Amino acid sequence: MGVRQIFIGTILLAIVSGVFGQAKFNTIPGSLSIRQNEALQVSYMIENPQSVGQFKLPAFRDFKVVQGPIKTDGNIITNGQYSNYLSYTYVLMPLKKGRLQLPGATAMIDGKNVTSNRVVIEVTDAVRAQPNPYPRNPGISLFRQQPEEDYQLEEKEDAAEKIKKNLFVKLELDRKSVFIGEPIVATYKLFTRLRSESRVTKRPSLNGFSVYDMIEPEKLGPDVETLNGKTFMTHIIRKTQLIPLQEGDFELEPVILDNRISFTRMVPVEKDRTNQSPLEEMFDNLFDSRRGVTETHQVTLSSEAKQIHIKPLPPGAPASFNGAVGKFDLKGRLVDTAVAAGEPAQYELSIEGKGNLPLINAPAWSLPTGFHSLDPQVKETLDKSVAPMTGTKIFTYSITPDSSGKILLPAIEFSYFDPVSARYHSLHTDSVYLVVGEPQHRKQSNEVIAAPAGKSRKVWLYSGGISAAALLVAGLVLLVRKRRRVQRSAAEPVAPERAADAVPVIVEIRDPLIHARQAMEREDATAYYHAIELALWEAVAARLDLPGSSQQKPVALAMLAKRGMDAGDLAALEGCWKTCDWILYLPPSAHRIDPALLGTAATLLGKIAEV
Q1: Is the peptide bond before 147 cis (omega within 30 degrees of 0)?
Q2: Residue 97: which of 52, 38, 144 has the closest Cα?
Q3: Which of 28, 242, 478, 502 fits as disulfide partner to 209, beta carbons 3.0 to 4.6 Å?
Q4: What percent of the chain stands above pLDDT 90?
């Protein structure tokens, strides 16, 4: 089995977890998405069987078998739980593009005929082959650099010492001290010169950071690196950029892997030399006749935890600074240059550059009297494979004028902190005129909720995904205003001519989960879970007013408990955070939106506001 196949075993073993005494039969592909000219490894794995009878391979209609079966068996110890497995592995090539079905295999397990699950594989366009696929060593283009596998043990050699020198995990950081909002690239990497199968058993918690994965490890092949004069095969477990959210000293926790290493121990072969001729004895002494005996070792590896220091932003920030860190350009344009009074006009503001783009909020816009606005709509295009990430964020403002005329809309100011120069910079759009015509009589859309007949006031509500909790808040606001009007009417009656001039009231409701709802609508699962996690954290941090590096989730949960938050709600909040954090560790191809989590988050936001 090649090193690539062995590494894919890392993912295979990470997916399944055996329970002693209960047999399982699973179809485990090496990837859920491949190119048409790429090979796919699939393993049919049987866990904890008492007995296994005939194994029957399914008929592959959409794939061609190019290698297999490769039969492996062994034992796994996970958290003190013992399990054994038997696996049949095949290498397949897709015959066409599209969503192809990988059928299950059939085996007689513990006296029962069992069929494994079916899996759908996404096959996309073939990737064009490069003229020189192994350009690591200039001038040696026909050969690929490969580290020497040190899998052989001498008769009395210490296996533990050899493992220590030839198999380890490292956490690599591009820097250890940055400003708030400035990214740190963290790479968890496995170095090996052995024949081993590994699986991740504990992933690091990255509290205090906004986390953005830069690559999909399952789509990468192994690489070769030289360390202390020795060449190692390396596998990236995770490469991410961490954007710190608060100042202080933080420890990046280690990643922990369970590893199964196979050695061949060389032992001499005992021969009867009684009837050997001198020539035969000479050859036996010259060529030491030995045989190899296979032995396996189970070890747990951990990367070293590392400390990083997050510096506070310097004083003197402009009033328009809202946390943008990096280097950016600003552009603005009025989409609708002329509208009628009472009709909305659209204005697009574009922020382009490199930095913490996902964390940038819409700049405040001080509009003239007589304008009403809703929360801006947001679109972003990001390249997360580089650090700092680059891209564009577009905010679309919807503004509605009450009266006609040629109205000057003021410039929008946006400020950011440049960590390279350690200075703040302010950018401005140009002011622009909006031509507003006389109001037109038109039928109200479903975004306008008219007051009952005979009332002079109207309430406009944005209908784009407002939750029931937000509508309840709006209702309470209207009820309070109505009671105040009744009290004022009793003390000071309103003249009839003033009632005719009543101005519509705009109730602006900010939904903290709006970004999660938008992500669900466009089926962006990664953005969906990130938005829910961020909304909950922002609500907790604002409610508790946590200073500096105290803004960590365990600290926040403890403070919420002291304030009297129900234990069930605390457990739900912690579970929601863990779900979001765990999902973001999976490859994007495995992300699936759970709509129920949005309702749970909305309920928790209400609970947080009450403590």
Answers
A1: no
A2: 38
A3: 242
A4: 27
The DSSP annotation for 33-67 comes to: EEETTS-EEEEEEEES-S-EEEEE----SSEEEEE
Q: Which of 60-64, 270-274, 509-513 has the highest mean pLDDT?
A: 60-64
Predicted local confidence at residue 584, as pLDDT: 58
The answer on pLDDT for 257 being more than 50 is yes
Classify 549 as helix, strand or coil: helix
CA-CA distance, 342 to 340, in Å (whole number)? 6
Element (H, E) at 536: helix 525-544
Three-class secondary structure of residue 547 per DSSP: coil
Nearest Cα neighbor of 86 from 65, 100, 68, 107 is 107
Residue with tokens 């594989």: 121
Give the chain's mean pLDDT.
78
Across 410-557, the runs of DSSP E, i.e. the strands, are: 413-418, 423-428, 432-437, 448-449, 459-460, 505-506
Instruction: Note the Cα 39 to chain centre separation in Å.
Output: 26
Measured between alpha carbons, how far is 22 from 109 in angstroms, rounded to an integer? 11
Beta bridge partners of 50: none
Average pLDDT for residues 355-361, to the nearest whole number?
93
Residue pair 27/118 in contact (Cβ under 8 Å)? The answer is yes
- In angstroms, the CA 301 to CA 164 distance is 9
- Asked if residues 224 and 145 have their Cβ atoms less than 8 Å apart, the reply is yes
pLDDT for residue 501 is more than 50 = no
Q: Is the dihedral of CA 558, 559, 560, 565 positive or negative?
A: positive
Identify any residues that bridge with 401 across adjacent strands, giving them in sequence order. 371
Core vs surface per residue 436-454: b (16+ CB within 10 A) or e: beeeeeeeeeeeeeeeeee
Query: CA-to-CA distance for 307 and 290, rounded, in angstroms?
Result: 49
What's the longest Cα–Cα distance across the chain? Answer: 131
Q: Where are the alpha helices (DSSP H) in 114-225?
A: 159-166
119-133, 176-190, 316-330, 334-348: lowest mean pLDDT where?
119-133
pLDDT over threshold 80, residue 59: yes
Return d(Cα 568, Cα 301) in angstroms, integer. 36
Sequence-distant (≥ 6) Cβ neighbours of residue 438 within 8 angstroms: 340, 341, 404
Residue 42 has pLDDT above 50, yes or no: yes
Tell me, what's the pLDDT at 89? Answer: 84
CB burial of 22-53 (b: ≥16 within 10 Å; e: otherwise) equals ebbbbbbbbbebbbeebbbbbbbbbbbbeebe
What does the chain come to in residues? Answer: 611
**Is beta strand 413-418 parallel, antiparallel or unpaired with respect to 423-428?**
antiparallel
- CA–CA separation, 345 vs 234, rounded Å? 55
Query: 595-610 and 525-544 helices cross at what angle (nearest 10)?
Result: 10
Q: Is the pLDDT of residue 167 over 50?
A: yes
CA 133/CA 386 separation, integer angstroms? 23
Q: What is the DSSP letter of 313?
A: P
Question: Residue 6's CB: how many other CB atoms inside 10 A?
Answer: 19
Q: What is the pLDDT of residues 371-414, one digit of tens each?
A: 988 889 999 999 988 999 999 999 999 999 999 999 999 999 99
CA distance 99 to 122: 5
